[in-house]
Amino acid sequence: MDQPKQPMTPDAIRALVERVTHAPGYTSSVGTRVERAEAGHVVMSLARNDNLLQINGFFHGGVVAGLADHAGGGAVTTAMPSGRFAVTVNLNVSFLAPARGDRLIARARAIQVGSTIGVAHVEVASVADGVETPCAMAIVTLRGVDFPAK
Fold this sequence. Notes:
Blueprint: H1 10-22, H2 26-30, E1 33-38, E2 41-47, H3 61-77, E3 84-95, E4 103-113, E5 117-128, E6 131-146
Antiparallel strand pairs: 1-2, 2-4, 3-6, 4-5, 5-6
């Protein structure tokens, strides 16, 4: 008879989200940071960089959406069985205000995680002079897949 799976420790959850975030690719190259990670909840940030901005100096909408997407994926991944991670099948972003400031912060919460599909709600804020301004919200639908072999 199978033993019940033990919940992941907080350190293991953080390590999982860090692993996915800092693997070679987009999130690593733009400087995405994991601020907090726990089962079903992830907070990520992204510092201002001229390469991430529109001509008017705001964070590009694709960058805002990318951060929301990755944070949502992290939140769902932390709620999936060991050895699985979440990849996006649908991303719906509503932009609320220009994303101006020194950094972006995304707070993601898994709202439903099943055996193959999970859904996360993400709120993104821009931070200027320590003041957060909501700039986007997203619903991310993701599919659980196996981690690739090392």
